[in-house]
Amino acid sequence: MEWYWLVLGALASGALIGFTGGVLGIGGGLLAIPLLGLVLGMDQQLAQGTALIMVLPAVLQTIRKYNQNAHIDFHSAAAGAAGSIVFTWVGARVALGLDPAMLRNIYALFVLLIAVFYFHQSLRGSRPGRPQKPRREASAFHKGWFVLLGMLAGITGGIFGVGGSVITVPILTTFFRLSQTGAQAVALTMITPGIFVALFTYAAHGEADWLLGVPLAIGSIFFVPYGVRLAYALPEPRLKLLFACMLVVIMVLLLVSV
């Protein structure tokens, strides 16, 4: 395939992935990784490193749009970021030493567990007459909780390249009782420094394709705002159901690409 067709395809794919990431608050990386493996035959580590090139600017753009809609508690997010940085590096080093097929299967199982959780949450939230617990703000909690949450996000994001926000958003919505969009905003802000660390670690080991990653990033940042706008327009149970369905699609793509 000629390089310019590859770049054009990456731009178009980045636009779709950026829109999806804006809706779901995951930066699009979860979708990009299996697509890179399925379409281009990349091994899991190279797909994760390449996806990080796209994820970083898309996440920054998503955070900016979320903050415009509802101000993010940056103090809580900074506490989480402090916990995530070292653990992201540890997770990335672990991932780089694993067999690619094993890492992909572990990733698929991880995605399936999160999808099951979100299906459960969406069904509970859509039951008529069910009393809804009042939502809380991140500032209501001690910052130490966010440091621990950042550690969990860091090790997850380091091993899988992305996914730190996917594991923290359910915790923030269920135990901290943040709104879905509020949780997505705090989680993405929390993991941003870790994304820098993960990208540097993967790239230093030659596991990042910049020719593909840069046009993916360019395509994604233009469509992130439209995805964020849709996220705020959707009812929360429907947003959770959409998230769960997308995770199932991702899991199938991962298994197909083995």
UniProtKB/TrEMBL annotation:
Database matches in Pfam families: TauE
Record keywords: Cell membrane, Membrane, Transmembrane, Transmembrane helix
Residue spans crossing the bilayer: 72-92, 104-123, 144-171, 183-203, 210-232, 238-256
Membrane-topology descriptor: Multi-pass membrane protein
GO cellular component: plasma membrane
Superkingdom of the source species: Bacteria
Keyword Membrane: yes
Intracellular or extracellular location(s): Cell membrane; Membrane
Keyword GTP-binding: no
Protein family per UniProt: Belongs to the 4-toluene sulfonate uptake permease (TSUP) (TC 2.A.102) family.
Protein name: Probable membrane transporter protein
